[in-house]
Design goal:
70% of the residues lie in helices and 0% in strands. The chain is mainly alpha-helical. It folds into 2 domains: 50 residues; 90 residues. The longest helix has 40 residues. The protein binds zinc ion. The site of zinc ion (ZN) has 6 residues, from helix 3.
């Protein structure tokens, strides 16, 4: 470990929090802004005082954030596709398909909220690829599905 004598970040009362913030994947510039420090001080601190393991973790976190952004972009594309199909189905009075598209859009919105939540959560080292549904969400989705079936069976759709 390098000598830390003159490092303002090491001497900072919130040093642990600064390190945690950096390790969570927030950029050096944004971290500097957050703690009202000069970015070059943060850079030097990262390069000279954060251990190599931590530096690797930092890189992994950044990669996961990028991956999260990619997933979000894909979700946006799927959302507009679902919207397009829904509009098209409505044009043909195909309400069964339109409703399915609506359900799909709802699911995508939910997925996006979860990803955004995980990206914003403290400690960006959360594995955002692992999007398991918790029981409450699963139950809600089942309820939505049943509701949809009820609507269809109730003859709400005029199409087909
Ligand atoms: Zn330092």
């Amino acid at each position: 470990m390098a000598v830390r004598g003159s490092c303002k970040v090491c001497a900072h009362p919130q040093r642990e929090e600064i390190d945690r913030t950096l390790l969570s994947g927030l950029s050096q510039v944004k971290t500097a802004r957050l703690f009202k420090l000069n970015p070059s001080l943060i850079q030097r601190h990262v390069e000279e005082h954060i251990t190599r393991d931590a530096a690797v973790a930092l890189e992994v976190a950044a990669e996961q954030r990028n991956h999260g952004q990619e997933v979000l972009a894909t979700i946006s594309t799927l959302e507009s596709e679902a919207t397009r199909l829904q509009t098209s189905a409505e044009g043909y009075n195909d309400y069964r398909t339109a409703l399915a598209c609506l359900g799909e859009r709802r699911h995508l919105v939910e997925l996006r909220c979860r990803i955004l939540g995980e990206l914003q959560a403290r400690g960006g080292d959360t594995n955002i690829v692992n999007l398991n549904l918790d029981p409450a969400t699963a139950a809600r989705m089942c309820a939505t599905y049943l509701e949809r079936q009820k609507l269809l069976d109730g003859g709400v759709h005029r199409g087909n």
